[in-house]
Write the structure tokens for this entry.
Amino acid sequence: MAVSEPLDSVAISEVIAMALSDHVSFDHIRSLYGLAPDQVKALMRTNLRPGSYRAWRKRVRDFSDRRTHYKSAKALA
């Protein structure tokens, strides 16, 4: 899917489910949907309640700190 194409509601739901999963990296979401990590974070901020978004961001940060292979290649450089 190209970045310039807007995501439909099904694709948004799939991206949210993938982002909430501890087994899917931002790089995998980028390869499937063409969304950069900042775009995924913006999508999550828009579609989750504020407290849910903050809890998700904390979990993602903690998870990526423990498992470096889930960090994007740009973050490792």
